[in-house]
Amino acid sequence: MGLRELSPELAKIAREELNEDPNRIGQDLQALKDWLAKQPHLNVRTDDQWLIAFLRGCKYSLERTKGKLDMFYTLRKAAPEICQVKDLMDPKIQELLNIGEMLPLKNSSNYNGPRAILVRPGLCDPNKFSMIDVMQINYMLYCILLMEDDQAVVAGHLHIVDLTNVGMSHFTQMTPSIAKKVVMSGQDAMPFRLKGSHNINAPKGMETILNFFKNFMNEKNQNRMFLHSGNVEAVYKYVPKEIFPAEYGGDAGPIDDLRDYWKNKFEDYSDWFLEEAKYKSDENKRPGKPKTSETLFGIEGSFRQLNLD
Fold this sequence. Notes:
globular, 7 strands
């Protein structure tokens, strides 16, 4: 097995919270590969480091892992506008990388909690970028984290969503169907454990938007959505101040350095993304009833229907 060794702190979390038994990892991976080999509709990545992320995210329940993997690759066909990896040479992708809308924060030496991810949707001009464009590049970032961020996979992750300059124009392009796809991608397909989503600098009416998204979430994730009336200081009790960029009162240097780090990381994965794009489900070969966009997301409407007064 070509698996990275976990740090002692993460190995302890994996044993105690994820049911990881180091003596059974090989057997668990092989059982998953044997199942995948019998699924005519699934063309998926089967390297050990990729598959163990799904096993860990599902606490080594083989049935849950099967469901996550199936949904992960089903959404490549059923929700391609969000769950698709694209060529990094796409000009829109390059522009979004230069913006740095979503940036996982680096750790201090004494922090082993969930991976903190700073999200700044207000940086994306809604006249130039749709929320779908933003969600798509965020999806690609999550794929990188699945491949190489043991902390995010084992200890979970949390969002700090800075809503500065976010208005209804950021949401009116989204239908409830798109909202459901976004939630399902993160909740039912990605093998991450969401530890919290902390929304700061919220504009008027944001509670209504969050409640709308909660309609598509399970109860556990609903209870992990927080709306803070103030700025980033409200989050310091959840995420240590020192790992924030200087612009957010932390000690981790300028945010531009963090943006450049992740842009370079994307470029390191350019060949990986080109390969990953070929993996998806073929619903014509699925045993039983095919899963399609219509059967998974058959709802209509838009955020324009919401009353934010």
